UniProtKB/TrEMBL annotation, chains A, D:
UniProt keyword rRNA processing, yes or no: yes
Protein's UniProt name: Fibrillarin-like rRNA/tRNA 2'-O-methyltransferase
Database matches in Pfam families: Fibrillarin
Protein species of origin: Ignisphaera aggregans (strain DSM 17230 / JCM 13409 / AQ1.S1)
UniProt similarity note: Belongs to the methyltransferase superfamily. Fibrillarin family.
Name of the encoding gene: flpA
Length: 236, 392, 392, 236
C-alpha cells in the first residue's frame, strides 16, 4: 500500500559501486545503479535519487547481497571486468553484477535448466553485457567457443562436487590471480558450530587446486543453508 | 617426436596454433548470425562442424599429419576425428589455447572482423542469445500453443479494457462530466481518475506529474473548478478508483503478454517472426491452430487465414474471394494501393509458408534472407504495377 | 421563586425531571426504529418533535407552567417553545440532566424497555446508524446514479470473469489438462493455478492449505503425478499466474462492489432495499434510470422492468405480455408455482412502487411495515390459489 | 510480494490489550485483537497467532498508535468503557479503540464530514460498539439524545478552538475523573524547541476548564505536526 520514500542515497564505504538507499521509515537497503532504467528483473523496488535510478539489491534473494550485508572482506567485482557465472538462475544476482561491471564488462552466464534459462534470456536480451549459455557447468569444454579469459568466477551450482566443477572451469577460463566467489552449502544453524564434513572437504579441494581462501561468510539470517567463500586463484 | 597443433574453436572460427601459439591456419565463420549459430550448435553437441572439417582438410593438404598430433579440448570431437584417421590428443586448457582465448577479442579486431572489442562482444552477445534459443527449442514442448493462448488473452483483455473504460467514463462523469470530452484517450483518462480522484485534486502540478502536458493540465484544472458534476464521498471515489486501478493493471498485463509473445515466438517460430513480427506471427499460429498446422497449410490458405467468413461467402455466392486475411495487418499490404495488395499478400503468404516449414521442421534461422527476398519482391510489384488496372 | 423542570431528551423518549432529578413526566418513543429516527431527526435539527410537544402539553395540564421554568439544553428548541408562551431557560448540562444521562441505560431497563443494558446499546447502535443514514441523504447528490453504475460494473465484471476463466482453462490445460475436469468451479480452479502453478507443486498439504478438502486434494495430487500435459518454463507459468491473479482480484472487486451497493442503497433507497435487497434494488434503479424515474413509474411498468423485449414482442404480435421482468429474481416469485407468479409479481410491484416513492420524496423508513404487508399478501395469494387454474 | 510471517505475539508490558507482533524480518508491529475477524478497516495487515486474529495498528496512520510507540505514560482505555470520540474520521483509530473496549464498551463516534462519515458507517455497521454520529463537535447539544455519560474523551478535531470544543463536550458528557486524549497541533520540527503560542494557549484553556495534564507526547517521526495530550477531568 504505502510507497517507500527515499531520504538519501550514497555509495557504500567498503564496497564501491554498491549503494545504500535510506528510506523514510528509517530502514535502508543495498542497491546498484540500474543499467536499464525503468526495468525490474525480479520484482525488486526501483528508487530514483538525483536523477539516477537504483535497483534494490534484496539480501534475501541474492546470496551475494547477503554476503555484503554480513560484511564480506571485500567485493572483488569492479567495472569493466569479465566474469564467468556458473548457475546463473533466472538472473537475480547476475543482474546486479551486470549493473556493477557496466557496459564495458561481460558476464558469461551458464545455466543448465531450460525452465530457468527462458527467464534469464529475457534479462540478457535487455542487458548487452550478459552472455547467456545453456550448458552444464560440469562440462566447460562445451562452452569453450563462447567464453573468453575471465577476471573472476562466481559459482552457485548446488552440485555435490561443486569445488571440482569450479576448479575445472577456473582451469579453462580464469586468469592467474583471478577471484572466486562460491556460494557453498554449509547447513549449520549455529554460526559458531563446526562446519560439516562435506563442506570441509570442498574447501580442501579448492585449496588443493590452487585457490587461496581469503574469507568465508555465513549468510544467516538471509540464507540459512549457505556460506560465501571468497578466494584467489593461483595458476600452477 | 611428433609435432603438435592446437585447435582453438572460437565464435569467429576455428584456428590451428603451433606450439608457440602462432596461428598456422584458420577458417572463419561467415559473419552471418544464423549460419554461425548452426555451426556452433554442432560443436556444442560434440560434432565436427563444416568449418572445423575444412580446417582439418586444409591442414592435411599443408602439413604432414602423420607426424603431427592435433590437440583438442573436446573428447567427442577427438573421437570423431580419430575415426577419420587423424592423430588426436585431448587436453584441457593447454597454455597455447588459454593464451589464444585471452587474446581472442584483440585478434578478432586485428583480423578486421570488428572495429573494436566492444563490437566483438556485441556480436558474441547476439550469437549467444540466438544459440541459446536454438538449444531451448529442443525443450520447446507445445510452446506454440502457449503463444496462441497468449495472443488470444490479449484479445480478451482488449475487449475488457474497452468495456471497463466505457463504464468508468459513465461512472466518473457523475462527478466530473466535462473530463470525458477533454480526455479522449482511455489510458490518460483512467490514469487521471486513478491517481487524482476528486476533481478538486486536479491542480496543474499534479496533472503534469502524471504526464499531462502543461497546456492541457491547465485547461483540465480550469474546467474542474467550474464542473457541474456532483460531489462524491470518499467511499464512492474509492470504489471508482479501485476499478480504475484494475484497468491500469490490465493495461500493464497487456504489455507483459506482448513481451512474452515476443520471447516465445523468437524461440518457436523465429523465421515467421522475422517476416511479420511476433504479434502477427502469433495470430497466424492462432488461426491455424499450431505451428505444425501452419507449416502444412498451402500458401494460398495462409493468404486468407482470418478471412474465413468472406471466403465461404465468396464460395457460396460465386463472388470474388478475399485477397487477404489477417496478414492485412502487415504494414506493406495495408499501406499499398488497392490493386497491389493482392499481389503483395500472395508474395508474403508464399514466404510465410516457407518460414513456417523451416520453423517447424528444423528451426534454422534464415529470417534475414527471407525478409530481404520478400522486400525485393515487393519492390518489384511496386515497379510492375504502379497504376490501377484499366477497367474493361 | 419559580420552580424549574428539566427536560432530558433521550433516544427512548423525552423526560421531565424535577429539581431533585426525579421523573415527573415522560413520553416514550414507539419502539419502532423508523419512527424514532424521524423524531430524533427533528430534534437534531433544533425542532420540537411530536414527543417533546406531547410532553410539554401534558406538563401544561398537570403543572402550573406560569410559575415554572423549563430548562432545556438546546437554544433552538428553547426559542420555539418560548414563542408558544412557555417560560424556558437554556442551560448546558445541569446536574439533573447530567445525572439522568448517566443513569439512562439503567432507567431504560427499569422501565422494561430492554432486558439489559447490552440490549439498550444494541438498539442505540441501530437507531444511530439509521439516523446517520437519514442525515447523509441530505448530501446524497445523485448517489442513486452511483449505485446504478456499480451494479452495471458488476455485470461487466461477470462477463470478464467468464471470458478470462475460459481462457485460463484452455491455457493451463497445456500443462495439466486433467484439472479442467476435476475442478469445475472457476474460483477453485483459478485459485489452484494462481497459488500453486506447476502441477509438481500439487501435493495434498499445499492443496488443503488453500482450502481444498482432503479427499479432493489427494485426488488432484494423484492425477497431477500422472498428467499427460507438457512441461512449462518458469516464464510460461509466470504469465499464466499473472492472469490468474488478476482474475482473483476481479473476483474480489465484485465482492467489494456488492458491499458498496449495499451501503449506498441503504442510504438512497432504504425502503426498496428492505423489500428486495440491495442488488435487485439497484438493478431496478438501473433499468428505470434513476430513483426519480423509478418513483414515477406505474406499478404495472415496475412489474415488467427488464422484460422490455418480451413486452414489445407481445404488443407487436398480440401475444401474452410478460408477467415479470427482473423482479423474477425475487426468491418468493422464483420459488412459487407458475400460476402464482404473476399475482405475487403484481403485489411486489405495487409495494415497490410505494417504496420507491417514499424513498424519493421523503426517505422515511417504512420498510419493515411494507415488507410485512407484502409477506401477508403473498401468504394470501398462496392460500387463494393453491392449485393451477383449470384449462377451458 | 513477500508475505509477512509471524514469529510470536505477546501483550504489551505497559499497555494492556495492546499486542506486539514480531515478524520474521526482525521487525515488530503494534496490534489489537480483531473484534471482527477477517475484516480489515484501512488496508492494515492481519496476523493470526494461536488461533487469534490481530490487526496491525499502524503508527503512521493512527496518532494514538504513534503516542504509544513514543511511550505515552499510560493507556487509559480499558475494556467495557464508554468513550466519546470527536473527529472520528473514516475509522482508523476508532476501530482499534473498538477492538480494545470490546463488545461491552461503546464508542460515540462524532464526525461532521458526510464524505468521511460514509466510510465510518461501513465500519460501524460491522462493529456493534461503534455508534456513529453525523454532527458538528462544536454543537454537543445536537447529539445530547444519543450520547450517555462517558469514561473518556478522545479528540482529533483540527479546529482552531479545539480545547474549548473539548471542554464543552466534557461538560456535557465526561464523568468526573474521566480521561482526555487530545491530538493537538504543535508544529515544531525540533522536539526540544518551545511549543508554539497557539499550542500553549490551548493547553491553558484545558487547565482553566478543569483538566489536569498528565503527559504530553510529540508524535514525530510518525506525525510531524501533532502532539498527544493526556489529561484527567475534574468537574467543579
Amino acid at each position: 500500500m504505502s510507497s517507500l520514500s527515499v531520504v538519501r542515497v550514497y555509495e557504500h564505504e567498503k564496497y564501491r559501486n554498491v549503494y545504500i538507499v535510506e528510506l523514510d521509515d528509517g530502514s535502508s537497503r543495498l542497491a546498484t545503479k540500474n543499467l536499464v532504467p525503468g526495468k525490474k528483473v525480479y520484482g525488486e523496488h526501483l528508487f530514483r535519487w538525483e536523477n539516477v535510478e537504483y535497483r534494490e539489491w534484496n539480501t534475501y534473494r541474492s546470496k551475494l547481497a547477503a554476503a555484503l550485508a554480513k560484511g564480506l572482506k571485500e567485493l572483488p567485482i569492479v567495472p569493466g571486468q569479465r566474469i564467468l557465472y556458473l548457475g546463473a538462475g533466472s538472473g537475480t544476482t547476475v543482474s546486479h553484477i551486470s549493473d556493477i561491471v557496466g557496459l564495458k564488462g561481460a558476464i558469461y552466464a551458464v545455466e543448465f535448466a531450460p525452465r530457468v534459462m527462458r527467464e534469464l534470456i529475457v534479462v540478457a536480451d535487455e542487458r548487452p553485457n550478459i552472455i547467456p549459455i545453456l550448458e552444464d557447468a560440469r562440462m566447460p569444454q562445451r562452452y569453450r567457443m563462447i567464453v573468453e579469459e575471465v577476471d573472476g568466477l562466481y559459482a552457485d551450482v548446488a552440485q555435490p562436487e561443486q569445488a571440482a566443477i569450479v576448479a575445472d572451469n577456473a582451469e579453462m577460463f580464469l586468469k592467474d590471480k583471478g577471484w572466486l566467489l562460491l556460494a557453498i552449502k554449509a547447513r549449520s544453524i549455529d554460526v559458531t558450530a563446526e562446519p560439516s564434513e562435506i563442506y570441509r572437504r570442498e574447501i580442501e579441494t579448492l585449496k588443493s587446486r590452487g585457490f587461496d581462501i581469503v574469507d568465508i561468510i555465513h549468510l544467516e539470517p538471509f540464507d540459512k543453508d549457505h556460506a560465501m567463500v571468497y578466494a584467489i586463484y593461483n595458476r600452477k | 617426436m611428433n609435432k603438435k597443433i592446437f585447435i582453438a574453436d572460437t565464435v569467429i572460427g576455428a584456428f590451428a596454433l603451433d606450439e608457440n601459439g602462432k596461428i598456422v591456419e584458420s577458417v572463419l565463420y561467415p559473419k552471418d548470425i544464423g549460419k554461425t549459430v548452426e555451426e556452433l550448435l554442432q560443436l556444442s553437441e560434440g560434432k565436427v562442424n563444416s568449418v572445423l572439417n575444412q580446417l582439418v582438410e586444409t591442414l592435411k593438404s599443408k602439413v604432414d599429419l602423420s607426424s603431427t598430433t592435433l590437440v583438442i579440448e573436446d573428447s567427442s570431437l577427438a573421437r570423431e576425428l580419430t575415426q577419420r584417421g587423424v592423430a588426436v590428443e585431448v587436453a584441457v586448457a593447454p597454455k597455447q589455447i588459454l593464451e589464444f582465448r585471452r587474446l581472442l577479442p584483440k585478434i578478432s579486431v586485428e583480423l578486421g572482423l570488428f572495429k573494436d572489442e566492444d563490437e566483438f562482444r556485441e556480436y558474441l552477445h547476439t550469437v549467444s542469445i540466438e544459440l541459446t534459443r536454438r538449444k531451448l527449442r529442443r525443450y520447446a514442448q507445445k510452446r506454440d500453443l502457449l503463444a496462441i493462448q497468449a495472443i488470444r488473452a490479449i484479445d480478451d483483455i482488449d475487449k475488457t479494457l474497452n468495456l471497463f473504460a466505457t463504464r468508468l467514463r459513465e461512472w466518473y462523469s457523475i462527478h466530473f462530466p466535462e473530463l470525458d470530452d477533454i480526455s479522449k484517450e482511455h489510458e490518460e483518462y483512467i490514469k487521471i481518475v486513478a491517481s487524482l480522484g476528486f476533481r478538486d485534486n486536479m491542480v496543474p502540478d499534479s496533472l503534469v506529474k502524471i504526464g499531462i502536458s502543461e497546456g492541457r493540465a491547465k485547461r483540465i484544472s480550469e474546467v474542474a473548478k467550474k464542473s457541474i458534476g456532483a460531489d462524491l464521498s470518499e467511499m464512492d471515489m474509492n470504489i471508482i478508483q479501485t476499478v480504475a486501478n484494475i484497468w491500469l493493471e490490465l493495461y500493464d498485463l497487456r504489455q507483459k503478454l506482448t513481451d512474452y509473445i515476443a520471447q516465445v515466438m523468437k524461440e518457436v517460430a523465429p523465421n515467421v517472426t522475422a517476416l511479420v513480427g511476433p504479434l502477427l506471427g502469433a495470430r497466424l499460429l492462432s488461426l491455424a491452430g499450431s505451428l505444425e498446422e501452419l507449416a502444412k497449410l498451402p500458401a494460398s490458405t495462409v493468404q486468407v487465414l482470418g478471412a474465413e467468413k468472406a471466403l465461404f461467402r465468396a464460395l457460396r455466392t460465386g463472388g470474388k474471394p478475399p485477397k487477404h486475411g489477417v496478414i492485412f495487418q502487415y504494414p506493406e499490404i495495408r499501406k499499398a494501393p488497392k490493386w497491389q495488395r493482392g499481389k503483395i499478400a500472395r508474395a508474403l503468404a508464399t514466404k510465410l509458408s516457407i518460414a513456417a516449414r523451416i520453423d517447424f521442421f528444423t528451426g534454422r534461422y534464415v529470417g534475414d534472407e527471407l525478409r530481404s527476398k520478400l522486400i525485393e519482391r515487393i519492390e518489384e510489384i511496386k515497379k510492375l504495377y504502379p497504376k490501377p488496372p484499366k477497367r474493361e
